[in-house]
Design brief:
Hypothetical Protein Aq_1857, Chain: A
Length: 109
């Protein structure tokens, strides 16, 4: 199973982001941050692979996540700002959960 789908444009923008923030180790963990009105939310952190992680190296960036996150969401697509209609970079799951979003606002149903 492929962990991450990333175009050359998104790769360059993301690597530039890491360099601008003086990230020296290109070991990026994708974490599930919970659900929001627009569906599941994810964050990234610098980490090292752990036993049982799904790991994929794209050029010199190593992406990793826990296996259960990959099982649930099927992997991820990292979009560049341009690919995301000018709204900044975006990390999206390949499998969107049914029903999506939260239950606290009427727009989610």
């Amino acid at each position: 199973m492929k962990l991450i789908d990333i175009t050359e444009e998104a790769y360059k923008e993301f690597k530039n982001f890491l360099d601008e923030n003086e990230i020296k180790e290109y070991n990026i963990r994708i974490n599930f941050a919970g659900n929001s009105c627009s569906g599941p939310a994810f964050n990234i952190s610098v980490d090292t692979p752990k036993e049982g992680d799904v790991v994929e190296k794209v050029k010199d960036i190593t992406f990793m996540t826990e296996k259960d996150i990959t099982d649930e969401f099927g992997g991820f697509v990292l979009l560049s700002t341009e690919e995301n209609n000018g709204r900044g970079m975006s990390l999206r799951p390949l499998i969107e959960p049914e029903g999506g979003g939260c239950s606290s606002c009427p727009g989610c149903h």
